[in-house]
């Protein structure tokens, strides 16, 4: 690659060094410069793995990881979590009928209710999630099937959605807003929670639906199109996604600020999950001002408007209630992993120390290999 | 410069008519314009790209790029491939363009040189490129010859002129050229303008020393030889002016014909790398296959049912087709296991190492003002793996400064046996004196006189007499110079020569001999003769040459003298001197006439001219009378014994291949410590026939067998000395294995009396059978073949011109620099390259294999784990510089240590640091890292939420977490691998980490998103994710799990099985540990 034998300059005067073929130089010393860089004598730090550095490192890692692990484990254990599957696979499950009779064309919603009991009261804010299993939100074709410009309120993309949205790009000649497979498959079950009092009356548990999406998503990434404050005008000339029952500007009938692309349920759904089993934040049950627990122990009923079919692809739907700590939700793995890794490090440190000592006594008398 | 090259069929014969451009144009000969550049502005882009895409790796990436344009397959956006590819292509293109720019510049300069051309009867200045075949040009003193020209006439008598051919063959002495006599009178432009001779000659070729043609002029034929030609590249010297007829121009000249691309040498690491890249391709296809099968199963079992939410893309109607597409999609996203930047990085590192060699002050020779030079930049790491060194003797081990030391005249030996000059810098001319010899010259002993007369006549030295008495000799070989100078000091002064005469001053009297013939020296004849007629008219042939060839040609009458002289010769040779025998023969006028006729006949022959001439020479060099012998000393170079001792301690076997006599060679072997008195036996093989050589080899073999049998290792050290004629038989296909096994069992091998071709054959033999890296070092034209055939050729820029240097890969001025080149630079280069490759493969596997594991969780849909920008930048920004810095600057032990402990060189010879096993370890570590990097975030994040309850398991957070963990893990790994933290390493390691975070925050910023929402959809992700403690806990956990086992393994290896380099490295820190240093020094340091 770099070797060519003839160079016209070699014909020219005498064979000169690689670098200098400048002027007709007088007899100039070609002695290379005596710089640390050129002579490869740059000052350098030369670490070596000695027993004095490696063994303490192992012990230090061990000593740091184990307490962190214990802390994490305890924190995680203090978090209360309740999970219930309401897919309706079993014949005796309350949503069996709804699941069985699902039809894309039906206009009426099927409602089912699931009873459950909380053994322990949930203190502080309680977070309510819906969970899906075997749902491939991370499939390549699914992930790319969206138009972020459209979701950002760019007018041209509202009318001319990106090709990535195919086959959910247009419907009956009208552009779909929001387009794409992700939006089209928006989770549309409604979950309502009721506490059953001692006397058997159902009392609705108050939930908020604000603050479930990322701040940047809500305020930067997702924006409604057009200057018009009336969303139905802004979205004129577009079609709703084919699976949807209502238009994008009607998603939240209660709060007009929570409609269009900035509907938080919609935003949460659009942040696709990394794994086929995932949970998404649905509602927050705010802590009560007085000292009563947010969710006291006792019987509850969850009323579900069953709109979302998952049985066809063997999916599952769950509802999860969880409290939260500084490190997020329940996560036993992290604590256990830290304790394990810390212990292994510590143990390795001990083993290596023993080996080192045994070997050290041997070397003093013995051979050094060639 | 625009040169036009007509496309013509190969010439059979060249016809050139002087002063007739129209006639010559019929043949469309090439013009005198040369183009060594490859491109011009228009062709640069297409031609350079075309050349670059001939590289397999580049084509592969182009193929990937095309695949990515298919929307159903495209799993990565186009820029992830095109950015690195464009970067790699443009780096190479810039390099090529710079090279070519300088070539253009020198082409321009050469093509625009002025030369005087005879056009229509008058001399006109023309640019070189406008000179045509058939033009007559005028050359002046010290000018370069513009083309290959036929010398027509000169300003000197007899049509003589002198040239220097240093650019062609590296010989710095002057040579004579003579025009044929009929044209010698054409001295002025008017006569020349009317010259209309036609030359018929051979087509363009690259043979520098022969030319064969005929001049037809005025109905007569005149033979033309090389003696009549001035070749392009020569310089006219000591001649006022001369005229020549252009025969070959531009690309047809012998100079250009000789400049074909040299054979491209590849290192063993290169070959291994290519194999590994092929394996990785295979691996890639397997991975793609596995994932495609997975995709088929998934699409059949799940994807088909999932169609209510995610319908198949229109062309896909069944799972098999989907699997087919997914295979290609995975080939695209897994392509980073074959790193595109690998080759470029390797080149950059090698270039850096070459500069370090050029810059090394300790390989600079201040006497000759020459620094070491890496002429090939692609072989550096091979310098760390050399097992065999083939060395020339003269000029390589020795200084090639000859001093006349002893002589034997008519059976009487002269010379101070124990004379050693007190001052080592004393003028070599005065080293020799022997009262007896001076006496015998003075008294006029006829033999002594004849002896020195021979020395003053029989040579090809040119003299230059700047002022009266100030004679300067220019000799082709230093031996000749020494002999002529000796004769001069004893009163037989060679003054000057013309083609027909030699003028000498014999004991104060000027005598002019007419020179009848010179019977040239060559390697086969090993002798040269002159035939002269002295002023009295007596014709005498003087011959000097190797004793073996000369003794066969002597008159057998005086056997006693012959045997005494032979004894002397052997004595001299045993002292390590170079010997020559001298003889003469008187010729009668008739003998001379007869021989002269046959000589002329042979000279005119057009086919096998050389052979015929040699046969003619052989005829007359018979029946000679012995005069005596000369012995010339060639001193060893500084530091040679130490260097050889050090290199053999480094387990490098040194073979000396020399043209000298066996005794001389053995003696030099002793004086440079190759042979020692401790050696069990020095085996000498000097058989002349196949049988005797075979017999000798067999007996050595049995001898070894006896030695081996008791303990299965060869106890004791052996040395082998083999002579050229035995070697010729030993190199026969049926005997070479036997020879090889014997030779390789020996510690030192000396081949004497070998021809240049045999030197190359020996090298080829080792290359063929031993799979070892060979290095050939030499200084003369006879070493060129050996230098070219060895893996690494080293040229010593010494007394014998620069031909060896031009053919070499590395050049320097002193043999002793070889130890630094190999033990320091070679060792470091090898170490750095190996560490670089290990890490490079590791980091790419760690990076890429994460996609593979993710495949099992994303329906085998070829969804990438990371952001597209991260994939684009990972190899070229985030991880490239730290490993480059390591590959450039790493040192495990300082340079003086590797010279103190030559055993440190061994890992390179055994190929321990990077081989298939090491490669598997690297990629296993890479795959392990990828498993950790995927499954730890998977396990942690799948249920984790932010501290505000929002789940963390969204795709983008997962991507950021994994990418951050990856960059941190590979950075920690490079920090572990780097053993020598210079300021560059710090800047690059910390800088890369810093750039990762900076670039990520920039790419996830709102500004970019607002402008291009579809490209920068990770908006806000970096801050949202990286502010979560859980994410950092995950990264720390993954890093610990990746690094702790590596740390433990490395520590165990260091503790239980330390390599010598580790021990030496530790030594620096614990100088006072006497046990270690004592052990080491007892084992490794010879002195």
Layout: helices, strands, pairs:
The complex is a heterodimer of chains A (370) and B (1087).
Chain A: H1 51-78, E1 81-85, H2 96-100, E2 110-118, E3 126-133, H3 140-143, H4 148-151, H5 155-159, E4 170-171, E5 174-175, H6 181-184, E6 190-196, E7 202-204, H7 215-221, H8 231-234, H9 264-270, E8 278-285, E9 298-306, E10 316-322, H10 332-363
Antiparallel strand pairs in A: 1-10, 2-9, 3-8, 3-10, 4-5, 6-7, 6-9
Helix pairs in contact in A: 1-10
Chain B: E1 14-17, H1 21-25, H2 41-52, H3 56-68, H4 78-111, E2 114-119, E3 122-127, E4 136-140, E5 148-154, E6 160-164, H5 166-169, E7 174-178, H6 181-184, H7 189-193, E8 198-201, E9 213-217, E10 220-224, E11 229-230, E12 235-237, E13 241-248, H8 254-257, H9 268-303, H10 319-333, H11 341-359, E14 373-374, E15 386-391, E16 398-409, E17 412-414, H12 435-442, H13 446-457, E18 462-467, E19 470-474, H14 478-489, E20 492-497, E21 501-506, E22 509-519, E23 527-533, E24 539-545, H15 547-551, H16 559-574, E25 578-587, H17 589-604, H18 609-620, E26 625-636, H19 640-649, E27 653-657, H20 662-671, E28 681-685, H21 690-711, E29 718-723, H22 724-730, H23 736-745, E30 748-752, H24 756-770, E31 773-778, H25 784-789, E32 792-796, H26 803-807, E33 810-812, H27 817-855, H28 868-878, H29 880-889, H30 895-900, H31 906-909, H32 916-941, H33 955-977, H34 983-1003, H35 1006-1011, H36 1021-1026, H37 1029-1056, H38 1060-1069, H39 1074-1084
Parallel strand pairs in B: 15-27, 15-31, 27-30, 28-29, 29-30, 31-32, 32-33
Antiparallel strand pairs in B: 1-8, 2-3, 2-4, 4-13, 5-11, 5-13, 6-7, 6-12, 8-9, 9-10, 14-33, 16-17, 16-26, 18-19, 20-21, 21-22, 22-23, 23-24, 24-25, 25-26
């Amino acid at each position: 690659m770099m070797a060519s034998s003839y160079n016209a300059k070699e014909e020219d005067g005498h064979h000169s060094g690689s670098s200098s073929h400048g002027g007709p130089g007088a007899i100039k010393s070609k002695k290379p410069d005596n710089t640390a860089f050129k002579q490869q004598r740059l000052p350098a730090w030369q670490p070596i793995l000695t027993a004095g550095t490696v063994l303490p490192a192992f012990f230090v890692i061990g000593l740091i990881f184990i307490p962190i692990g214990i802390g994490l484990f305890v924190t995680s254990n203090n978090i209360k979590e309740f999970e219930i599957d309401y897919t309706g696979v079993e014949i005796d499950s309350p949503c069996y009928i709804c699941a069985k009779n699902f039809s894309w064309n039906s206009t009426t919603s099927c409602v089912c209710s699931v009873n459950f009991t909380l053994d322990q009261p949930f203190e502080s804010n309680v977070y309510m999630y819906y969970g899906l299993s075997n749902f491939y939100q991370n499939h390549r074709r699914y992930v790319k099937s969206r138009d972020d410009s459209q979701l950002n309120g760019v007018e041209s993309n509202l009318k001319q959605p990106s090709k990535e949205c195919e086959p959910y790009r247009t419907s009956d000649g009208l552009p779909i807003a929001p387009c794409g497979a992700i939006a089209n498959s928006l989770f549309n079950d409604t979950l309502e929670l009721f506490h059953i009092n001692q006397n058997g009356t159902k009392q609705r548990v108050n939930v908020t639906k604000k603050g479930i999406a990322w701040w940047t998503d809500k305020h930067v990434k997702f924006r409604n199109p057009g200057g018009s404050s009336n969303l139905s005008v802004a979205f004129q000339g577009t079609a709703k996604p084919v699976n949807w029952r209502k238009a994008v500007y009607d998603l939240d009938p209660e709060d007009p600020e929570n409609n269009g692309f900035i509907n938080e349920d919609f935003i949460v759904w659009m942040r696709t999950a990394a794994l086929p089993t995932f949970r998404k934040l649905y509602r927050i049950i705010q802590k009560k001002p007085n000292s009563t627990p947010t969710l006291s122990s006792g019987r509850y009923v969850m009323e579900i408007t069953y709109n979302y079919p998952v049985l066809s692809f063997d999916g599952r739907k769950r509802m999860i209630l969880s409290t939260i700590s500084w490190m997020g939700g329940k996560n036993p793995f992290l604590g256990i992993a830290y304790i394990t890794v810390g212990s292994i490090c510590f143990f390795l440190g001990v083993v290596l120390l023993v080996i080192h000592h045994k070997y050290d006594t041997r070397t003093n008398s013995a051979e050094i290999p060639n | 410069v625009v040169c036009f090259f007509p496309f013509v069929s190969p010439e059979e014969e060249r016809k050139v008519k002087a002063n007739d451009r129209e006639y010559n144009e019929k043949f469309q000969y090439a013009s005198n314009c040369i183009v060594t550049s490859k491109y011009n502005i228009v062709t640069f882009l297409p031609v350079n790209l075309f050349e670059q895409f001939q590289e397999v790796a580049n084509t592969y990436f182009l193929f990937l790029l095309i695949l990515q344009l298919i929307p159903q397959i495209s799993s990565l956006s186009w820029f992830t491939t095109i950015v690195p590819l464009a970067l790699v292509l443009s780096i190479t293109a810039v390099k090529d363009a710079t090279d070519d720019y300088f070539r253009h510049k020198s082409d321009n300069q050469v093509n625009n040189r002025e030369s005087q051309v005879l056009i229509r009867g008058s001399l006109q200045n023309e640019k070189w490129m406008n000179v045509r075949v058939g033009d007559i040009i005028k050359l002046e003193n010290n000018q370069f010859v513009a083309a290959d020209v036929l010398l027509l006439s000169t300003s000197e008598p007899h049509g003589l002129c002198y040239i220097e051919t240093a650019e062609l063959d590296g010989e710095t002495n002057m040579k004579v050229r003579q025009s044929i006599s009929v044209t010698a009178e054409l001295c002025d432009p008017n006569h020349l303008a009317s010259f209309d001779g036609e030359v018929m000659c051979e087509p363009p070729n690259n043979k520098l020393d022969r030319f064969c043609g005929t001049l037809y002029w005025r109905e007569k034929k005149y033979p033309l030889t090389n003696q009549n030609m001035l070749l392009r590249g020569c310089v006219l010297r000591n001649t006022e002016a001369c005229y020549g007829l252009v025969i070959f121009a531009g690309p047809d000249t012998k100079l250009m014909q000789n400049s074909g691309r040299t054979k491209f040498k590849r290192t063993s690491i290169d070959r291994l790398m290519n194999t590994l890249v092929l394996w990785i391709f295979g691996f890639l296809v397997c991975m793609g296959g596995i994932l495609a099968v997975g995709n088929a199963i998934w699409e059949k079992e799940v994807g088909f049912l999932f169609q209510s939410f995610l319908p198949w893309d229109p062309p896909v109607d069944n799972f098999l087709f989907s699997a087919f597409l997914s295979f290609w999609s995975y080939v695209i996203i897994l392509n980073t296991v074959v790193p595109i930047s690998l080759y470029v990085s390797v080149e950059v590192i090698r270039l850096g190492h070459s500069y370090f060699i050029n810059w090394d002050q300790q390989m600079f020779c201040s006497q000759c003002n020459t620094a070491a030079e890496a002429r090939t930049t692609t072989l550096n790491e091979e310098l760390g793996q050399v097992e065999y060194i083939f060395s020339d003797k003269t000029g390589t081990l020795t200084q090639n400064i000859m001093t006349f030391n002893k002589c034997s005249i008519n059976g009487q030996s002269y010379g101070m046996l124990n004379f050693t000059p007190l001052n080592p810098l004393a003028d070599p001319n005065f080293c020799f004196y022997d009262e007896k010899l001076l006496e015998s010259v003075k008294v006029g002993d006829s033999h002594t006189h004849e002896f020195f007369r021979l020395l003053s006549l029989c040579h090809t030295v040119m003299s230059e007499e700047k002022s009266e008495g100030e004679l300067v000799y220019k000799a082709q070989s230093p031996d000749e110079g020494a002999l002529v100078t000796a004769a001069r000091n004893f009163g037989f002064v060679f003054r000057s020569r013309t083609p027909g005469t030699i003028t000498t001053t014999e004991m104060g009297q000027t005598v002019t001999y007419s020179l009848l013939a010179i019977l040239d020296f060559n390697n086969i004849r090993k002798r040269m003769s002159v035939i002269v007629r002295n002023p009295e008219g007596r014709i005498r042939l003087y011959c000097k040459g190797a004793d073996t060839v000369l003794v066969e040609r002597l008159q057998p009458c005086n056997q006693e003298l012959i045997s005494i002289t032979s004894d002397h010769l052997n004595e001299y040779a045993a002292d390590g001197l170079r010997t020559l025998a001298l003889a003469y023969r008187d010729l009668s006028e008739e003998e001379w006439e007869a021989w002269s006729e046959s000589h002329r006949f042979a000279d005119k022959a057009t086919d096998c001219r050389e052979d015929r001439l040699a046969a003619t020479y052989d005829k007359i060099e018979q029946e000679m009378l012995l005069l005596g012998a000369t012995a010339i000393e060639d001193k060893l170079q500084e530091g040679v014994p130490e260097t050889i001792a050090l290199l053999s301690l480094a387990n490098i076997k040194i073979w000396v291949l020399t043209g000298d006599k066996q005794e001389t060679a053995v003696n030099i072997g002793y004086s440079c410590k190759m042979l020692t008195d401790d050696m069990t036996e020095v085996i000498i093989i000097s058989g002349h026939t196949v049988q005797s050589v075979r017999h000798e080899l067999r007996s050595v073999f049995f001898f070894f067998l006896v030695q081996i049998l008791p303990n299965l290792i060869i106890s004791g050290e052996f040395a082998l000395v083999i002579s050229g004629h035995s070697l010729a038989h030993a190199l026969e296909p049926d005997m070479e294995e036997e020879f090889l096994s014997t030779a390789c069992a020996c510690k030192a091998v000396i081949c004497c009396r070998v021809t240049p071709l045999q030197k190359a054959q020996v090298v080829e033999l080792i290359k063929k059978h031993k799979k070892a890296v060979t290095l050939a070092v030499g200084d003369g034209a006879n070493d060129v073949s050996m230098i070219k055939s060895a893996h690494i050729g080293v040229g010593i820029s010494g007394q014998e011109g620069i031909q060896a240097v031009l053919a070499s890969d590395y050049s320097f001025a002193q043999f002793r620099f070889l130890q630094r080149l190999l033990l320091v630079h070679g060792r470091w280069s090898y170490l750095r390259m190996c560490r670089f490759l290990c890490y490079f493969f590791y980091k790419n596997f760690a990076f890429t294999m994460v996609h593979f594991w993710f495949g099992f969780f994303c329906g085998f849909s070829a969804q990438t784990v990371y952001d597209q920008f991260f994939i684009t930048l990972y190899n070229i920004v985030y991880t490239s510089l730290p490993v480059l810095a390591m590959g450039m600057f790493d040192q495990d032990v300082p340079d003086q240590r590797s010279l103190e402990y030559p055993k440190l060189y061994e890992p390179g010879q055994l190929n321990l640091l990077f081989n298939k096993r090491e490669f598997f370890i690297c990629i296993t570590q890479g795959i392990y890292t990828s498993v950790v990097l995927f499954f730890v975030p998977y396990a942690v994040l799948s249920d984790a939420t932010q501290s505000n309850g929002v789940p963390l398991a969204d795709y983008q957070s997962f991507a950021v977490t994994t990418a951050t963990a990856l960059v941190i893990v590979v950075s920690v790994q490079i920090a572990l691998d780097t053993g020598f933290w210079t300021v560059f390493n710090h800047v690059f390691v910390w800088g890369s980490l810093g750039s990762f975070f900076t670039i990520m925050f920039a790419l996830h910023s709102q500004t970019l998103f607002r402008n291009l929402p579809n490209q920068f959809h990770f908006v806000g992700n970096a801050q949202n994710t990286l502010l979560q403690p859980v994410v950092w806990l995950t990264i720390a956990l993954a890093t610990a799990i990746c690094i702790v086992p590596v740390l433990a393994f490395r520590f165990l290896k260091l503790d239980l099985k330390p390599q010598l380099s580790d021990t030496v490295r530790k030594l620096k820190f614990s100088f006072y540990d006497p046990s270690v240093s004592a052990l080491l020094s007892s084992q490794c340091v010879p002195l």
